[in-house]
What does this fold into?
Amino acid sequence: MMVPVEEWTQELNTLFIINRMQLRRAAYKILGDWDISDDVVQDAYIKVTEVSATQNIRQPLAYLFRIVRNLAIDHYRRGAFETELFGTEEEGLYVQTLTEMPEANAIHRQHLALVVKALAELPERTKRVFMLYRVEGYTHRMIADELNISTSLANILIHEATEHCRGIFLEKMT
It folds into this structure.
């Protein structure tokens, strides 16, 4: 049986007025935010009013709850995706300003100069192993194959170079 458009609109308005708080609570259970839940209920109202009365919806209240639920889930997923993609607004508060960068760059250059000095003091093979590991990203096995040494010797040389650099760095910092 077809319901006239005016009658459908009146029934829809009445359902929304009577059940607004329950619809809002249904959205809140998914979203956890009352303001966003209000927005979802309003979006659901707009969406339902666009539906033609010729569709003959048998359970309009259940239909309203289903639309609110679906819109809330869509909103939640979109928010989760955007947060993952763009991060939260608070993350932007911790970005260094341009005025802090020159000082940080100077400190990094000083640290790099200390590491270069420490590496210059190492035997050539130890320095090569360290550079392959730290700069080139080689594994112990790849270093061993490259230099025809055992993996345990590669590990020892990496450890020696690291300790030497750490010692030079700590010596200069104190």
Q: What stands out?
A: DSSP finds seven helices and no strands in the chain. The longest helix spans residues 5-31. The radius of gyration is 33 Å. The helical segments are 5-31, 34-50, 60-86, 101-120, 124-134, 140-147, 151-173.
